[in-house]
C-alpha cells in the first residue's frame, strides 16, 4: 500500500511559503546532452534496482548445466524471436537458474544486448511492480545503447517543460514507459541481438503479471514485423496461470533432481567426521533426501543445516534417516515444523514480533531499523524524548548481535541481505516463506505464545499485526525531539537546517519509516488498534501535530506529506479511521476546514473511496458541493479516482447533491483518465450530459482518447458522443488520440466521421500531434484520410516542423512526399529547417535542403537556421548550412548573428571539434573563415567578443581578437569586455589580453569603470592589476563615490590606491546625494529617449537610487516593475539570482541601498548581514521588494502605461507644488497627501527643465514609449 497522498497532481509545482505559492520556472538554459542523459538515468533508476539479482546466491558448483543441453532452450536461442517460460514449484530454484542463464550470456561474446529485472514481493514497491521493471529495463538500455537516447531524452525534456526544471518532482507514468521501452528495444534490435530476462513474474501479482505477458507478446509481435531479433525469458510459478501456448515452457522440477543430489552430497562431504558412515549409507541418505525434496531446492536448503547440526552433535545417519520421517516433505509443512520445533519456546514472543515486521512491513527494514522496531513496542508513549534506548527491554545494541538474533529468532526463515549503499536489510529467505507467514504462519505463532487458545483467521491476525506495527511507529515518534533549528525553518541558515535535518534522521533510525507509514498501518489495522494500544486515540491526538511537523521537515516534497493545515480529521478520513472521526468531530471547530491543498475531509474520503467515512461526515454536516481550489467536488474526486461505490452513493443521493451539469460533466470527463469503465457507465446511466464541455480535456471522449482507453471510447461513441466536439487542451478527440498513439482509437474516430482537419488545441490539428510524437502509422492514416499537410497553427506551426523537432526521418519524408511546403513559416523556430538545425537533426537538415528549403529564411527565436545550429553547437550542421550558402552575417534572432551565438556557448571542447578530416578548425573559426563580421552588433551580449568574455573562454577571445574584434565595443549598458571581466574577476582574461585594457577608464551608463566593478564585487587582485595598468581611482560613479569610498576597509587595496593617487579623498555624504539626484535625472532621460532592448536593469537601478535617498515609496514602486517580454542575457528579469549564493531568488527578494547591483535572497540576508566582502563591519541597508502578483507588477510593451502614469504624476505634482511653495535646497523630496514622493527642484533643476521633461513625457505617452 502506498503512503496516503494529498490532492491531485498538477501540471506544475507550488511550494508553500510564508509569502504564498512559489512557482518554479519551466525554463532553463541549454544543457549539454551528457548532463541530460545523466538526469534521465537518475529519473529512471531507484536505489534497490539491482538488489534482488545481486542477492541471489550463484548456483551450486556443477549444477544448472542441464538447461544448456535442452532442445527447448537451444531452439529458443536459435530463433530470431521468441518467449521462453521457466516454470516451477515455489522453491524449485527458478531465480538461481535465471541468474545462471543471465551470467552465462554475459560471458559469451557477440551476444548483443541483454537486459534483466528480478521481481521480489518481499522488496520495496518498485521491486515488486511493473513500474519498477519498466524503469529498470529502460534505464539499462538507455545506458548501453546511444541510438535509443534521443526519443527518451525528448520525452524527459517534454515532462520537464511541463512540470518545471530543477529538482524533479514528477514520476514516469506506466503507459509512457511501456511505449518508450518497446520503441527502445526495437530501435536497438536493428543493430544487435536483444535478450531480456524477467524473473519471478508471479511476484508482481496476478493481474500485473498477465498484463506484462500481454505486453511482452506485443513487443515480440512488433519485432517480428520489423524482422529484428528480440528474445525474452520469463520465470514464474505454475500458479497463478499467466502463460499461454505461444511460449516454449521448461518445468524446472522435472530436471533438477541431479542438481539437488549434488548439493546434498557436497554438504555431507563438507560435514565429514572421523567415524562417518559407509559410502552405501551415505548414498541411501542422499537418495532419501532427494526424493523428499521432490524437485524443491528450498526444502533441501532448509533441511541440510539441521542435518549438519545433528551430525556434528554425534547422531548417526540411521538416527537422521529416522528423524527425516518426522520432517514434512512439503515446504509449508516444513516451515510449520521449524516454527513448532526449531524455534526455542523462550523466544516465541520475540519471534512473532520479528516475523510481523519481516512479513508486513511496507518495505524491508535495515538491520539498524529492525533493532529499534523490535524495541519500540516496549518504549511506551513518552512525554519527553527518550534518552537511553539501552534501558528498554529487549533492545539490541549492535547490528552484529542483531544479525545473530535474527537467525535465532527466525529458525533460519529470515536472512540479512545487502542493499543500497552499505545498508543490510532483513527479509524472508524465500518468497514461499513470506506466503506461508501471510497465510497461517503468523496465526500459528500467535497461538503458540499463549495469547489465545483459539486460532485466528488470516484477516484478523493481519489486523492485529498491523496494529502492533502502528503502535510501534506511534510510540517511536513520541520519543523524537525536534531541534530548535528545525522548528523555525526560516530563522536559521540553509546549511544549518540541512545539517540538522540529516542529523535528525541519522540519530533516529526508524524515523523515516515510522513517519511515512504510520497511517498506512493504522488503516490496515482497522478496529484492532485499540486492542494493542490502550488509550490509543488520546495518544494519537497527542502525537499527531508532532508527526505532521516531522514529515514536513524530512520529506516536504513527497506527495504523501501532509500539507499545512492538515488536521487529525483529514488524516482519519484518508486512512478510513471511522472511530477517530467519531471521537474528534464533537470537538472539531469546523468540519468544512480545508487543508493546505484546499481539501476538506469529505473531499479526501471521496478520493480514497471510504464510503463509511463519507456517510459519517455527511451525517455530521459535510457539504456535498464544497469546492476545492481546483473547482472539484466530492463527485468529481470520486469519479476521477475510480471510486465506484462512492460515486453510486453520491448519485443515489442526487436530490441532496443537486449536482450541476458542469459538475457531472467534469466527473464524466475525469473518469476515463483512470480507465474505470464502471464509473463511466454509472455516470451515463445517471443521465450525465455526454457532451458537456469543461476542464482540461474539454469532454469525456477527448480524455478517453488521449489515455488510450479503447472500450470507453467505444462506449462513449455508442452513447452518441460528439466526435468533433471542440475544446480542451487537445482541441478534439482525434488530436488527443493521435497524440496518445492509439491506432485503434484513431481508426474508430475516423470511422465515426471525425474531421481530420479540425483546428484547435495545443498542436493545431491531429496530423501535427502525430508527427511530433513520431507515430508513423497514425500519420499515414491521417494523410490517407486527406489531412491537410500544410495546415497552420498549433505549438509547432505545422506538421513538417513538428516532425523535424520530433526527429522522425520517416515521417518527414512522408510529409514531403505529400507535398508539405518546406518553407512555411511559423512556431518559435520559424520554419522546419531552423527547427531541425537547432535540434541537431542532421539527416532531416539534409533532407530539407534537398527539398529546396531556404537556407537564409529569417524569423523565429534564432533568426535563421545557421544561428540556431551555431548556438546549439551542432558543428556538422553548421558546415552543411555554410556549404549550402547560408549568409554568415545575417542579422536577427536572440543572439543577433551566428557568430555571437557560437561565442555565447563557450564550450571549448565542442568549439574545437574537427569539422572534417582536413581542417583543424572549430565552429567559431569556421564562421570567421566564412567572412563573418567579427564586430557585428546585436543579441543579448552586444557583440561576439562580449559573449566570449561572458563565458570566460580565452581561446574564443583570442580567435576573435586575432580576427579584428574591437575591444571597445560595448553593450547597451556601455559595458566593454573589460567591464565584464572585472565584474566576474576573470584575471586570466586580463592577464592574457592586454588589448582589453584600452577601455580601462571607460565608464558605463552608471558611470562605473572596470575598477569600480572589480572593487564592488570584491575582486581585489583584479583591481590591483587595473591600478598597475593605469586605472584612475578618482573617477566617481553614479553615487559620486570613488574607489577609496568602496575600498575603505581593505588595507592592501587602500595602500595601492594611495600609491597611485596620493591626493584622493573620501567623498562627503552630501556630494553623494547630489550625485545620486543627478543620476536619477540622467537615467530617467535615458529611459525616455533610448530604445533599449533591456531597460529592466536601469529601472531597478533607478529604484535603488530612490532607496539611497530614503524615498521608500518610489523605491518600492520602481523595484516592483517587471517587463513581461524582456530578457537580460537570455534570463527572464522576473527570475533574479542572488548575488551572494548565485541561486535563483524564488522566495523573498531583498536589495541593498548601499550595494551596487546587489540582489539578495532571504537566506543570504540572514547568513551574510554585512555590506559586501570589503566592508565586514557595515551592515546592508536592506529593503524587501514587496511580493505582488504578476498581473499587477508586469509591464507590457509598447504601452508601459503604469510606469508612464507614475512618472507623469511625479512631474505633475512637482509643477503643482512649485506654484504653491518653494522647497528648500536641502530637501530632495516633499511629502504629499497621497503619500507619493515628489520630485523636487533639487532633482529636476529649474522649472523650465521640468517643463521640458513634461513635454517629453507627454510625447512618450502619446505613442513613443519604447524600451
List the main descriptive attributes of the protein structure presented here.
about 1250 residues; single chain; 14 strands; transmembrane; disordered C terminus; transmembrane helix; mainly alpha; Rossmann fold; membrane; 5-stranded parallel β-sheet; 3-stranded antiparallel β-sheet
Helical content, roughly?
40-55%
Estimated structural class = mainly alpha
Biggest sheet architecture: 5 strands, parallel
N-to-C CA distance: 57 Å
CATH topology of the domain at 31-254: Rossmann fold
Low-confidence stretches: 7-29, 655-662, 907-934, 1122-1134, 1171-1177, 1188-1199, 1214-1267
Residue fraction in strands: under 5%
Q: Give me the number of helical elements.
A: 63
Could you state the CATH homologous superfamily of the domain at 31-254?
Answer: P-loop containing nucleotide triphosphate hydrolases
Describe the structure.
Keywords: ANK repeat, Membrane, Metal-binding, Repeat, Transmembrane, Transmembrane helix, Zinc, Zinc-finger. Residues 62-237 form the Nephrocystin 3-like N-terminal domain. ANK repeats lie at residues 564-596, 597-629, 663-695, 696-728, 729-761, 762-794, 795-827, 828-860, 894-926, 943-972, 1006-1038. This is Nephrocystin 3-like N-terminal domain-containing protein. By secondary structure, the protein is mainly α. Among the domains are: 31-254, P-loop containing nucleotide triphosphate hydrolases (Rossmann fold, 3-Layer(aba) Sandwich); 257-329, no CATH class; 330-478 and 507-562, no CATH class; 632-742 and 749-755, Serine Threonine Protein Phosphatase 5, Tetratricopeptide repeat; 1069-1264, no CATH class. The protein contains 63 helices and 14 strands. The chain has a 5-stranded parallel sheet with strand order 4-5-6-3-7, sandwiched between helices. The radius of gyration is 37 Å and the shape is globular. The model is unreliable at 7-29, 655-662, 907-934, 1122-1134, 1171-1177, 1188-1199 and 1214-1267 (pLDDT under 50).
Amino acid at each position: 500500500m502506498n503512503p496516503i497522498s494529498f490532492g491531485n497532481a498538477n501540471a506544475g509545482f507550488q511550494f508553500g511559503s510564508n509569502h504564498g505559492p512559489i512557482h518554479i520556472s519551466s525554463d532553463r538554459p541549454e544543457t549539454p546532452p551528457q548532463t541530460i542523459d545523466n538526469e534521465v538515468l537518475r529519473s529512471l533508476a531507484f536505489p534497490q534496482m539491482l538488489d534482488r539479482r545481486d542477492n541471489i546466491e550463484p548456483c551450486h558448483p556443477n549444477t544448472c548445466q542441464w538447461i544448456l543441453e535442452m532442445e527447448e532452450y537451444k531452439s529458443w536461442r536459435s530463433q530470431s524471436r521468441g518467449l521462453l517460460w521457466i516454470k516451477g514449484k515455489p522453491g524449485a530454484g527458478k531465480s538461481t537458474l535465471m541468474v545462471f542463464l543471465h551470467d552465462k550470456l554475459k560471458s559469451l561474446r557477440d551476444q548483443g544486448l541483454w537486459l534483466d529485472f528480478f521481481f521480489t514481493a518481499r522488496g520495496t514497491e518498485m521491486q515488486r511492480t511493473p513500474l519498477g521493471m519498466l524503469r529498470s529495463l529502460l534505464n539499462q538500455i538507455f545506458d548501453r545503447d546511444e541510438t535509443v537516447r534521443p526519443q527518451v531524452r525528448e520525452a524527459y525534456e517534454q515532462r520537464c517543460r511541463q512540470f518545471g526544471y530543477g529538482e524533479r518532482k514528477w514520476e514516469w507514468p506506466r503507459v509512457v514507459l511501456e511505449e518508450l521501452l518497446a520503441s527502445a528495444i526495437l530501435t536497438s534490435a536493428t543493430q544487435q541481438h536483444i535478450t531480456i530476462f524477467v524473473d519471478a513474474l508471479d511476484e508482481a501479482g496476478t493481474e500485473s503479471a498477465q498484463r506484462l505477458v500481454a505486453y511482452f507478446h506485443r513487443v515480440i509481435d512488433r519485432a517480428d514485423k520489423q524482422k529484428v531479433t528480440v528474445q525474452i525469458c520469463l520465470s514464474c510459478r505454475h500458479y497463478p496461470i499467466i502463460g499461454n501456448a505461444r511460449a516454449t515452457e521448461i518445468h524446472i522440477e522435472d530436471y533438477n533432481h541431479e542438481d539437488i543430489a549434488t548439493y546434498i552430497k557436497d554438504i555431507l562431504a563438507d560435514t565429514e567426521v572421523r567415524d562417518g558412515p559407509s559410502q552405501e549409507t551415505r548414498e541411501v541418505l542422499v537418495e532419501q533426501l532427494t526424493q523428499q525434496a521432490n524437485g524443491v531446492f528450498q526444502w533441501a536448503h532448509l533441511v541440510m543445516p539441521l542435518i549438519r547440526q545433528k551430525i556434528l552433535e554425534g547422531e548417526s545417519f540411521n538416527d537422521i534417516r529416522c528423524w527425516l520421517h518426522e520432517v514434512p516433505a512439503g515446504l509449508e509443512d516444513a516451515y510449520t515444523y521449524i516454527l513448532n520445533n526449531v524455534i526455542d519456546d523462550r523466544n516465541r514472543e520475540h519471534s512473532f514480533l520479528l516475523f510481523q515486521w519481516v512479513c508486513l512491513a511496507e518495505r524491508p527494514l535495515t538491520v539498524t531499523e529492525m533493532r529499534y522496531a523490535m524495541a519500540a513496542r516496549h518504549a511506551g508513549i513518552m512525554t519527553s524524548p527518550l534518552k537511553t534506548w539501552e534501558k528498554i527491554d529487549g533492545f539490541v545494541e549492535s547490528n552484529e548481535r542483531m544479525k545473530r538474533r535474527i537467525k535465532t529468532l527466525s529458525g533460519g526463515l529470515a536472512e540479512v541481505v545487502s542493499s543500497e549503499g552499505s545498508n543490510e536489510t532483513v527479509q524472508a529467505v524465500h518468497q514461499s516463506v513470506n506466503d506461508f507467514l501471510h497465510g497461517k504462519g503468523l496465526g500459528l505463532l500467535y497461538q503458540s505464545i499463549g495469547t489465545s487458545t483459539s486460532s485466528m483467521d488470516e484477516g484478523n491476525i493481519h489486523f492485529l499485526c498491523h496494529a502492533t506495527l502502528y503502535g510501534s511507529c506511534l510510540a517511536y515518534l513520541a520519543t523524537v525531539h525536534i531541534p530548535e533549528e528545525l522548528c523555525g525553518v526560516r530563522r536559521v541558515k540553509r546549511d544549518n537546517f540541512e545539517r540538522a535535518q540529516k542529523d535528525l534522521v541519522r540519530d533516529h533510525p526508524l524515523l523515516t519509516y515510522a513517519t511515512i507509514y504510520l497511517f498506512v498501518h493504522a488503516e490496515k489495522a482497522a478496529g484492532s488498534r485499540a486492542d494493542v494500544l490502550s488509550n490509543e486515540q488520546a495518544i494519537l491526538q497527542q502525537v499527531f501535530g508532532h508527526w505532521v511537523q516531522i514529515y514536513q521537515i524530512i520529506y516536504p516534497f513527497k506527495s504523501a506529506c501532509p500539507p499545512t493545515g492538515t488536521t487529525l480529521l483529514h488524516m482519519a478520513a484518508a486512512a478510513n479511521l471511522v472511530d477517530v472521526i467519531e471521537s474528534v468531530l464533537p470537538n472539531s471547530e469546523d468540519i468544512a476546514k480545508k487543508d493546505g491543498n484546499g481539501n476538506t475531509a469529505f473531499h479526501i474520503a471521496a478520493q480514497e473511496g471510504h464510503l463509511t467515512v463519507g456517510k459519517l461526515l455527511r451525517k455530521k454536516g459535510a457539504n456535498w458541493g464544497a469546492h476545492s481550489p481546483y473547482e472539484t467536488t466530492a463527485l468529481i474526486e470520486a469519479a476521477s479516482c475510480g471510486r465506484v461505490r462512492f460515486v453510486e452513493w453520491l448519485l443515489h443521493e442526487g436530490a441532496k447533491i443537486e449536482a450541476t451539469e458542469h459538475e457531472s460533466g467534469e466527473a464524466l470527463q475525469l473518469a476515463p483518465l483512470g480507465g474505470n469503465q464502471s464509473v463511466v457507465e454509472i455516470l451515463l446511466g445517471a443521465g450525465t450530459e455526454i457532451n458537456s464541455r469543461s476542464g482540461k480535456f474539454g469532454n469525456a471522449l477527448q480524455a478517453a482518447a488521449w489515455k488510450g482507453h479503447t472500450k470507453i471510447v467505444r462506449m462513449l461513441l455508442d452513447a452518441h458522443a460528439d466526435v468533433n466536439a471542440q475544446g480542451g487542451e487537445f482541441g478534439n478527440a482525434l488530436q488527443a488520440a493521435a497524440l496518445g498513439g492509439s491506432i485503434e482509437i484513431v481508426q474508430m474516430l475516423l470511422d465515426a466521421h471525425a474531421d481530420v482537419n479540425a483546428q484547435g488545441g495545443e498542436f493545431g490539428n491531429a496530423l501535427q500531434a502525430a508527427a511530433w510524437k513520431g507515430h508513423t502509422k497514425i500519420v499515414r492514416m491521417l494523410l490517407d484520410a486527406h489531412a491537410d499537410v500544410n495546415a497552420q497553427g498549433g505549438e509547432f506551426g505545422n506538421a513538417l516542423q513538428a516532425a523535424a523537432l520530433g526527429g522522425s526521418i520517416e515521417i518527414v519524408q512522408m510529409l514531403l512526399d505529400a507535398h508539405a511546403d518546406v518553407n512555411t513559416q511559423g512556431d518559435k523556430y520559424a520554419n522546419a529547417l531552423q527547427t531541425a538545425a537547432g535540434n541537431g537533426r542532421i539527416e532531416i537538415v539534409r533532407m530539407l535542403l534537398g527539398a529546396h528549403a531556404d537556407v537564409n529564411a529569417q524569423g523565429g527565436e534564432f533568426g535563421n537556421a545557421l544561428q540556431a545550429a551555431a548556438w546549439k553547437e551542432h558543428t556538422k550542421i553548421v558546415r552543411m548550412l555554410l556549404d549550402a550558402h547560408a549568409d554568415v552575417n545575417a542579422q536577427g534572432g536572440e543572439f543577433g548573428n551566428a557568430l555571437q551565438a557560437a561565442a555565447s556557448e563557450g564550450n571549448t571542447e565542442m568549439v574545437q571539434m574537427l569539422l572534417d578530416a582536413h581542417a583543424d578548425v572549430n565552429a567559431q573559426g569556421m564562421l570567421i573563415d566564412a567572412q563573418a563580421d567579427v564586430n557585428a552588433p546585436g543579441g543579448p551580449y552586444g557583440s561576439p567578443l562580449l559573449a566570449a568574455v561572458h563565458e570566460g573562454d580565452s581561446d574564443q577571445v583570442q580567435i576573435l581578437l586575432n580576427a579584428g574584434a574591437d575591444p571597445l565595443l560595448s553593450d547597451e549598458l556601455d559595458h566593454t569586455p573589460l567591464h565584464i571581466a572585472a565584474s566576474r574577476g576573470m584575471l586570466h582574461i586580463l592577464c592574457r589580453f592586454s588589448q582589453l585594457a584600452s577601455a580601462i577608464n571607460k565608464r558605463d551608463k552608471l558611470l562605473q569603470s572596470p575598477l569600480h566593478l572589480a572593487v564592488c564585487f570584491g575582486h581585489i587582485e583584479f583591481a590591483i592589476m587595473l591600478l598597475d595598468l593605469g586605472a584612475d581611482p578618482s573617477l566617481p560613479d553614479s553615487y559620486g563615490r570613488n574607489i577609496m569610498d568602496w575600498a575603505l576597509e581593505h588595507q592592501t587595496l587602500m595602500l595601492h590606491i594611495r600609491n597611485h593617487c596620493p591626493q584622493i579623498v573620501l567623498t562627503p555624504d552630501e556630494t553623494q546625494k547630489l550625485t545620486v539626484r543627478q543620476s536619477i535625472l540622467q537615467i530617467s532621460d535615458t529611459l525616455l529617449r533610448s530604445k533599449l532592448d533591456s531597460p529592466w536593469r536601469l529601472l531597478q537601478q533607478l529604484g535603488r537610487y530612490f532607496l539611497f535617498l530614503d524615498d521608500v515609496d518610489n523605491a518600492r514602486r520602481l523595484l516592483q516593475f517587471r517587463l513581461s517580454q524582456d530578457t537580460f542575457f537570455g534570463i527572464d528579469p522576473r527570475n533574479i539570482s542572488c548575488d551572494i549564493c548565485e541561486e535563483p531568488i524564488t522566495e523573498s527578494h531583498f536589495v541593498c541601498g548601499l550595494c551596487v547591483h546587489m540582489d539578495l535572497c532571504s537566506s543570504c540576508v540572514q547568513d551574510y548581514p554585512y555590506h559586501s566582502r570589503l566592508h565586514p563591519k557595515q551592515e546592508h541597508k536592506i529593503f524587501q521588494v514587496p511580493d505582488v502578483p504578476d498581473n499587477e507588477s508586469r509591464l507590457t510593451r509598447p504601452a508601459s502605461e503604469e510606469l508612464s502614469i507614475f512618472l507623469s504624476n511625479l512631474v505633475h505634482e512637482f509643477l503643482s507644488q512649485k506654484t504653491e511653495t518653494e522647497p528648500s535646497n536641502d530637501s530632495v523630496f516633499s511629502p504629499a497627501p497621497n503619500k507619493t514622493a515628489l520630485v523636487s527642484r533639487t532633482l529636476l533643476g529649474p522649472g523650465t527643465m521640468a517643463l521640458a521633461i513634461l513635454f517629453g513625457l507627454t510625447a512618450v505617452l502619446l505613442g513613443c514609449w519604447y524600451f
